[in-house]
Amino acid sequence: MRYVAKGILICFVVACVAMLAAWLFLSSALFSSIRTTFVENLISKKLGQDVRIEDEVRLGLGWQLQVSATGLELPGSQNADVKLAAIDEIEFEVSARDLWNSKLSLSGLSLSGVHLNLITDKDGFGNWQSISQTEAEAGKPANSPTPLLAGILTDRKIDLTDIAITYQNDLNGLELDLQLPELLLKRDTETDVATAVGAGSLNGERFELNATFPAEDPFQVTVNFEQIAIAADEVPQENGLQVKTSIEIAELGQLLDILKLNRVLDGTGNIGATFKSVDGVARIDGLSVLAELDGGQSLSLTGQIGELGNPEDVSLTTRIRLYPEDAEPAPAASRYDLKLIAVDMVIDSVPGQVPQRQMVIKTNGFTLDTSGEGPPPIKFSELSRTPEGALKVGNINLRIGNPADPFIILNGSVDDTLQLQGISAEGLIDIPASSLISPELLGPDDQLGRFSGDFHLNGDINQLSLTNLDGKTSDTDVWNLEVHGTVKNVLKFEDLDLGIDVSVPSGADLLEALSLERVETGQARLEIDLVSEGTDWNASANVEVADSVLQILADLDDATSEPVLRGSIESDLIKIDQIRTIVQAAAQLRKIGGPEPEEKGSKQEDEGDQGALRDVTLKPIGRSILLSGMDMDVDVDLRHIEGAKGISSLQSELTLNKNELKAGPLKFEYGGASFDVSGQMDLSNDANLLTLTGNAGGWQLDDILHNLNFKKGASGTVYADFSITGGTDSPKHFANSMSGNATVSLRDGSIETQLLDLAGLGVLPWVFTKDKQKVAPIVCLRAPIIISNGNLSTKQTTLETDHVQVVVFGAVDLTRKALDLNLQPRKIGEPLSKSPWPVTLKGPLAKPKVKVKDGPKRLKRSDGADKMPVKRKLCVPDILQLQ
């Protein structure tokens, strides 16, 4: 009995000592460092991250080992100044058996005061790095990480309070401050559904979080801000993961607040996309982004991003609209009214194939549509948030034109993308030089060479400056073009200093290079200097063609409500022969524009729009100046006009105001001939009709035909007076729409009988001359003409030879290029006699049908007059002279 009692006493003492030792180990400050090291190693091993406990660790005995620690810290990577994480207090229970077997199975987990810091410095080094990463860098094999929740959590409820996560990236300026006062994670044992419920704020913007994670069914996650709703729904898949995400934004301003960007946009938006991950390959399908601003601007983006990280697997369609479709600006006739409406971009890139792209720039004056094989029209990278709250694009590449051969390339950056401020870019221009003259000239055999150069752009959406412009032509001997200068405000074309120099060694070679007929103009040169400062404009030009020189000066002050352009056109030497070649060359150059508007319109109806440039409504620069509302006062002084028949001069004046354009009187005398012409255009309505009045006389018909390269001979002295009005869209439009009257007369003339044969009148040689001769005399010709909408009609046109008078009546339709004329020849002084062989000309102007008919019966005046006056008038129908 005594031994039993002694044994019990010994066991009791041992138990007490063990309990005391356990108590000392669990609670005594003496063993605090041991407890701390034990727990640090336990957690570090499972997290793969160094863990330090700065305060104390308390352990409690029971069915489960109760662990409580305060001052938990996760240090950052080496050389990191900021710790990765800090936990004010952590409590959990762990099974002693699992602990003995080196398993960490936590239950009753509670975290309070969680502070996570994810920091990346400007060199790209982050403050987080796991033990496995460190071992990998040291050449040690890394163990496969054990999933945290699956490996160490066995509880059905986790309570997290006072969570703060800070993300800061000095590379892109992104800062995120996530505050979660409480986050509850739990799993329903009956339904086996895990849920997460919490509320907090992101960069000061409050939100609510709800998520469900069924064991077998797809998960759902929703995050709701005041103006933003985010939803992510898993789509069931046999293999991999597929998540459909949508974001509805009722106010874009809150999104900017979340991203800590300046609140400079107001509007709505939505984003939709499907994320897929199969066998380690991730992609985004069904991407749809739409942002609509309160001002009417919008951005839409649709398509897919194939394998993430592979730029060759992208198909995107982007549309940027600066005006809503139902409120686009009116078509612009003047360049001052030109506005950008929309930009559409398409990129379709498939791995292993050449990427296809398209870029459409739409304005209210034209549309530029380019498509083909090549890189995307725009690339950008290095997005970042500035300390001032602006969104910066550090690297942007814009290619405008043909994808394989863009004519403008811009490389630069934008300091504030949302407001388009702080733009800085280096630009390259490289285009076929023929496109500077007309887009229709583009082709593989371009003899005009190329125009290339560089420039710099800087500024913002309100004032974009172009500096260091330096361009010139190359790869051609036909001409040389150089352009230099600066434009302080490109968008408004203000404050500029430009110099343009064009030299042409041979005008004939240039015309031939343009696939036009050669005209021997000799060498030519054009020098233009254009300078503006504020509202003051100054322009000077020097034009040289062979020996002829023309100086043009112009000044404009646009500060007044009614600006006036004052200028002068002067010359000390112009040769008449060179004027002829200049006119002929100008006639050839007019062919560059292609068919007239009427023909072009019908052609487009048959063939559709062709070429990159379409829907052009801009008027030629000359017409746009007329419609600008600017007043103009230009003096013309050609002091020395030299020709084979003498020397002359010409002075005139050109004035323009908001209601009308006046030119003249333009008076010129040379070699016994003269003309006096005045012009006036009514600008008070949309018709813009031009009225020409004047007279001319003393001009020799044979000289006129010679200057027109007409081979067959005719002579006589030509006189004319006229007053006609017509439209101004083109010379053809003027001819087809003109109305008014004109009288053309000829005296002491002759015509080769060969020319009569060509006209079909050779069947009546006796009308023009008694004997068949090479030349038929024409005593006079007088043609009073009435003009109406391009239709010329006459009733009293009279031609007289030495013994016959021919009266012509009928019409010529310039629009349809047809005529219908009747010619009645009679012996002079016998108007009532029967016309022996009247002639009709009817049909196309180029080849009318000539028909000789039996003469009509004798004529009779209604008033009975039947006697010719004693003194007969030339080229007045004899029947009208009867008494």
Low-confidence stretches: 17-21, 130-154, 595-610, 755-763
Indicate the structural class. Answer: alpha+beta
| Beta-strand content | over 45%
Number of helices: 15
Round the Cα radius of gyration to an integer and report it: 46 Å
Mean pLDDT figure: 77
Shape: elongated
Helix content: 10-25%
Number of strands: 45
Report how far apart the termini are. 183 Å
Task: Note the main sheet.
Answer: 25 strands, mixed
Protein name: AsmA-like protein
Domain AsmA: 8-141, 518-796
Pfam families: AsmA (PF05170)
InterPro entries: AsmA, AsmA-related
Task: Give the arrangement of secondary structure elements.
Layout: H1 2-27, H2 32-47, E1 52-53, E2 57-60, E3 65-74, E4 85-94, H3 96-100, E5 106-120, H4 131-137, H5 148-152, E6 157-169, E7 175-188, E8 193-202, E9 205-214, E10 220-225, E11 228-234, E12 241-249, H6 252-258, E13 267-278, E14 281-293, E15 298-307, E16 314-321, E17 340-349, E18 356-363, E19 367-373, E20 378-385, E21 391-402, E22 405-416, E23 421-432, E24 450-459, E25 464-474, E26 480-489, E27 494-504, H7 507-513, E28 524-533, E29 536-545, E30 548-557, E31 564-575, H8 576-589, H9 597-607, E32 613-614, H10 621-626, E33 631-643, E34 646-656, E35 660-670, E36 673-682, E37 690-700, H11 701-707, E38 714-726, H12 731-737, E39 739-752, H13 753-759, H14 765-768, E40 775-788, E41 791-800, E42 804-813, E43 818-827, E44 839-844, E45 849-852, H15 878-881
Parallel strand pairs: 5-6, 31-33
Antiparallel strand pairs: 1-3, 2-3, 3-4, 4-5, 6-7, 7-8, 8-9, 9-10, 10-11, 11-12, 12-13, 13-14, 14-15, 15-16, 16-17, 17-18, 18-19, 19-32, 20-21, 21-22, 22-23, 23-24, 24-25, 25-26, 26-27, 27-28, 28-29, 29-30, 30-31, 33-34, 34-35, 35-36, 36-37, 37-38, 38-39, 39-40, 40-41, 41-42, 42-43, 43-44, ...
Protein name: AsmA-like protein
GO cellular component, one term: plasma membrane
Organism: Ruegeria conchae
